[in-house]
């Protein structure tokens, strides 16, 4: 269920993350998506992993335990058709170089945690999506 004030909470999160650099265990693709879920629903699916790793190896070890990025995405909500994603939903996107990450829908594109802050990818970059706070 989405909080009544989720739009303002989500907007504040996006504003505070706009220039926040990527950081393993604090602001990476999975924890960015978990932060969005928390802003929208008040439930942080990444709480137990925040600060639990500091590099890519640690992140991969945790992901192996939950079934890779798709497993992490599934913790954010129920699967939905990609074309039905709207603001705050989580997606599994493919970057131009072929790597994948979790991202958050802005309504017209996907926002991803990047080296110098949020990076946007086109809406058709997703290959899976999960509805956040939907009933």
Describe the protein's topology:
Blueprint (H helix, E strand, L loop, with lengths): L5 H12 L11 H13 L14 H11 L1 H7 L3 E3 L9 E5 L5 E6 L3 E6 L2 E6 L3 E6 L4
Antiparallel strand pairs: 1-6, 2-3, 2-6, 3-4, 4-5
Question: How would you explain this protein's 3D organization?
Answer:
The mean pLDDT is 97. Helix 3 (56-66) packs across helix 4. Strand 4 and strand 5 (117-122) form a beta hairpin. The chain has one domain (6-131): endopeptidase fold (from Nostoc punctiforme) (Alpha-Beta Complex), CATH 3.90.1720. Strands 1-6-2-3-4-5 form a 6-stranded antiparallel beta sheet, covered by helices on one side. Helix content is 32%, strand content 24%. It contains 4 helices and 6 strands; from the N terminus they run ααααββββββ.
Question: What descriptive keywords fit this protein?
Answer:
4 helices, 24% strand, 135 residues, 6-stranded antiparallel beta sheet, endopeptidase fold (from Nostoc punctiforme), alpha+beta, globular, 6 strands
Principal-axes geometry comes out as globular
In terms of DSSP E residues, the strand content is: 15-25%
Q: Which structural class should the secondary elements be placed in?
A: alpha+beta
Count of the domains: 1
Topology, number of strands: 6
Quick structural gist:
This protein is an alpha+beta fold and 135 residues long. The chain has helices at residues 6-17, 29-41, 56-66, 68-74; strands spanning 78-80, 90-94, 100-105, 109-114, 117-122, 126-131. A 6-stranded antiparallel β-sheet has the order 1-6-2-3-4-5, with helices on one face.
